Amino acid sequence: MTVRKFKIAGVQLGPISKNTPKEKTVERLCRLLEDAADNQASLAVFPELALSSFFPRWYIDSQEDIDSYFEKGNITTGVVKPLFEVSKARGIGFFLGYAELTNDGKHYNTGILVNNKGEIVQKYRKSHLPGFDEPTEGAEFQQLEKRYFDQGDIGFQAVKTDPEWVDATVGILICNDRRWPEAWRCYGLQGMDLCLNGYNTASNGTSLFGGEENKALRLYHSDLSTKANAYFNSTFAVSVAKCGFEDGQELMAGSLIVDPNGRVIVQAKTEEDEVIFADIDLDETINGKTKMFDFSRHRRPELYSRIVEQKGSIELSFQ
Amino acid sequence: MTVRKFKIAGVQLGPISKNTPKEKTVERLCRLLEDAADNQASLAVFPELALSSFFPRWYIDSQEDIDSYFEKGNITTGVVKPLFEVSKARGIGFFLGYAELTNDGKHYNTGILVNNKGEIVQKYRKSHLPGFDEPTEGAEFQQLEKRYFDQGDIGFQAVKTDPEWVDATVGILICNDRRWPEAWRCYGLQGMDLCLNGYNTASNGTSLFGGEENKALRLYHSDLSTKANAYFNSTFAVSVAKCGFEDGQELMAGSLIVDPNGRVIVQAKTEEDEVIFADIDLDETINGKTKMFDFSRHRRPELYSRIVEQKGSIELSFQ
Questions:
Q1: What is this model's ipTM?
Q2: Is residue B151 domain-resident?
Q3: Total structural domains within chain A
Q4: Is residue A43 one of the residues assigned to a domain?
Q5: From the CA of A181, how many Å to the nearest CA of chain B?
Q6: List of chain B residues whose C-beta atoms are within 8 Å of the C-beta of residue A296
Q7: A316 located within any domain
Q8: Which of A314, B87, B171, B203 suits a disulfide with B192, CB 3.0-4.6 Å?
Q9: Do B309 and A316 count as a contact with CB atoms less than 8 A apart?
Q10: How far apart are CA A239 and CA A254, in angstroms?
Q11: Could you tell me if residue B117 is inside a domain?
Q12: Cα–Cα distances in Å, from B312 out to A159, A169, A193?
């Protein structure tokens, strides 16, 4: 049997203080995963960096202190092990974002997809790191992702999951990636029908990253990115927040599940732990993929070369 | 003096019957352009194929009949000449979509940008032709753009306009192009701060192109495409409809002007001739271009190769 219709859960997290031991956070995630399983979800989506406070908001001097936020070695056997055990015991898959420290000393903002047997079936490393390499003097909160993380080196590799669990073609994005149509399109070109994304996004812009953007505008941008890119690629999408006042900084909520027409099916109402659910039918992606967005009939890749040949924008002059 | 703040007009058109002589239509467009000039607009945006009924809805056997919808030779001296004269006399630029037949027999769905002196400063030919090469039996309305038009061969060449008229970097899209983020990004990578688009879009989906999409959903898709791509590239955008019941087929309205945050500044309220206006300041694009969407700092072109190396989608299998 092939499972195209199933229930999916977005597990929004409230704040995680830097003083909370990771074991406690994993316990909290286990309870939420059990909640999703109790509600017959096949897959639960946690946010980006779901095991700790969003540490890139601070300038941290000591590499040892920085590394304490990262998971080293085999994630299935460390502090996160109970989450894999719940997955296997309850037959529910999950997506989890966490900070990954590799054996050769690389630091990534990583996400993994775990199937309903507690097995990792895909890993992704954030491609579009926002923020800065160097701290900004006088800023209340930094955005130092470019300092603490290496750029993701995996690219956008979609994965076809076990059809007896969920028969999906899954693409993974992390936070800021959702604003970059190139990322979605790379997955769309592999037939993605389910996009998973987790985020930690400040509710208010600062001179560093958003200018004069207020909370409503930043939420509008976030929703718009998920809705439009879901439509352009005719895919379901789940975008899930870590939110609320976390160690003094307000992070936006608004976790949502979107259909392949770019419409919101369900959106979180709170700014704390909240599990949202949607019953989805992946066959609803077929209409878009075979008509408006039948790439094989309509795309013009021979005209798109600027997208790969150029990183920044050129400046034209009047002639 | 460099003009970064100015008034822009979207000139929505109601239906144009196939029985209307082109001279009459051009007269109508001249009056609307004068209306825009009376309101101190610097630039007025007409829709796609603004000189005739949307003829790709019919299967037309005779090439002579097809060609009657096209403009041959120098467009500034033919039936459209009065529009260039109003432009020059009133000092207002315009964008116009029309069907272009070249001297060597090519047929394009074309748009031109004309400055405030009645001079053509840029030409664009639609890249993403929707529809089919062959008529579909039993369909009430066809969508035969792929039959009647050659694919645009120009690509996406932005143009910097005379700063004493409007100091803009303009990108031109036609109708279905607005749904393709690749097209916007090619312009965004040239610093586009004003995107002009005209469309003829059926209000209701059919088995041919939209499936079970109703009018509200198709308008949602259209708006979403303009809003999101404007945000992703931090550009103003003007998308203008030809709309209403045209020779029996209902075309959607909803012409709109969008800011670089992807927010609607103004949207047409009717489904007939209606000029909408917005006072825009192109410097509002700078925040996005230098922060969230500073391409030179954040893009990862080395990961995007699938976008140009592949036209259609590949299919993955479970392993």
A1: 0.98
A2: yes
A3: 1
A4: yes
A5: 6
A6: 311-313
A7: no
A8: B171
A9: no
A10: 9
A11: yes
A12: 17, 16, 15
